[in-house]
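Risk register update: the risk of archive-format incompatibility is retired. Evidence:
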Amino acid sequence: DGRSFDAPSRALIQQLQERQIAVYPVPLGSVNPIADVAVSRVDAPSSAFVGDIVPVNIDVDVAGAVPGQTPTGRVQLVDATGRVLDEKPLPPADKPRVTLSSKAEAAGATNWSVRVALDQEDLADANNQQAVAIDLVDRPIRVLYIDGYPRWEYRYVKNLLLREPSVRSTMLLLAAEKRYIQEGSERIAALPRTQQEWATFDVVIMGDVRAALFSEEQLSNLRAVIAERGVGLLWIGGESFTPGSWASTAMADLVPFSFGSDSTTGVSRFTEPVLMKPGAAASAFGVLQLADTSATDQTWPDALSDAKLGWPKLHWAQRVERSQLKPASEIIATATPTLSDATKTFPLVMTMRYGAGRSIYVATDETWRYRYGRGEALTERFWIPLVRLLARGSLGRSGKPAMIEASPQSPLVNQPVRVTLRLLDQSLIERRAGEIEASINRAAGGSAGRVTLRPESQSLDTASVATYTGLWVPSEAGAFSISPADPALAGLDLAANVTVLLPEDELRRPQTDHAALAELAQATDGRILTAAELANLPTILPNREVRLLGTPDVETLWDKPFVLLLMLLLLGAEWIGRRLLRLA
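Archived output:
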């Protein structure tokens, strides 16, 4: 088929030419091949709340497309009945990435699927669809909001959380002397101190509050539940204490950027109003969709980008340079100056993963100004999806005694895969072993080996989550399932699915490479043959038969006397040598 990642070398071509070996390829396939469009990967949250806008990221692989004739069609997200929940055009690229989203409506396991509907014929239809498994939970999101003073942003966010039926909130205003005013739909007796008390919340919102109001133990325990139990952390920057006062605390690692030289605030501030615009990560996370639901493709209102209206301008915002972002940070929203260079953009809403949880930092407290545009609809569409995004981390671990994960989920052959097992139930933690074996099984059946998981640290006796890790290096491609083989974990239905890919898989492009075959034939003085010409090979291929003139003289040796004498002499010499050396 002409497909090879090891192309014929120049030395091989010269050797064929020197030996006068001509290559006559017979291409099996059309000169105008049909492209193969396949859904290569689907990335979606494993768990979500009912009412969430669930983002589904789809990687599509387009193989064998003729330049200038890229396949066209639509990528669709459909439910079990075949109803299209969301769709977008297939981008013109070899490996396009599309993000679709839909609101979760009913609790339980979903039966969504992703498919590619093409406008022309496809080489193989079996790889155009993949299932999407999401566990939807119908329970309130538990939010703890702590701020230092009743600024405008606090008042609006507080009212949004109180009105939202899917949220149970607790709001605290901490004074300098550690006294607090408590609001919200639920009350607490005191500030959380232990990991168990922090873990009762899905999301912790930290406003412009002094870090010194918390003890070192409180902050260390909060950091632990974010990293181990997936609790979400939402920072709302302020003029006084956030993020500057947190620079020397245990929570500094959860800020998505490094602190600047300003010892008071940690970052500088804009001296002019700015406009907020969605960043590159907004679509992938399914947030910042502030436009009306009636809009088909537009998710961000044009009015929010018009400085002439006045009300979309944020008059106070912290200026975070892109060079300050940590390597794992992603930009959800950007800030654009309205008076100076409008071509420059600065991170305004940033996020990063931290262990099992996620941290989001909002570098402004003036989204309440959007009320002048459409009441509180815009601020609600801004804040509630951010809270829901952060809550999914703890949801994926709530109610589960243990979890097993593999990273990356789509490795290449011989690429190490990190397997992580977390014991969340106290009874499992107490009877844990020094090492835990995990079995690796092929999806098609059969064992592919085992991996040993060892404790991540020696301080497991004081940790609320016991973590075991190990490395597995796959030696073959295919779909695999990794599950713990410990009898204590049997029956918990723990499994991590991994799809191993070949780094240079010729089967990813099944179309015949006619150009490569023609080039090889021309270089060796051969030519392209069609299937119909195979019957005429004796007349087409060069005749290299060697013919001898005259009758050859044939004389046998087996019946000659000197051959018999030579055999006897050799045998006699061997016998005499053995007798002299006294050999058997």
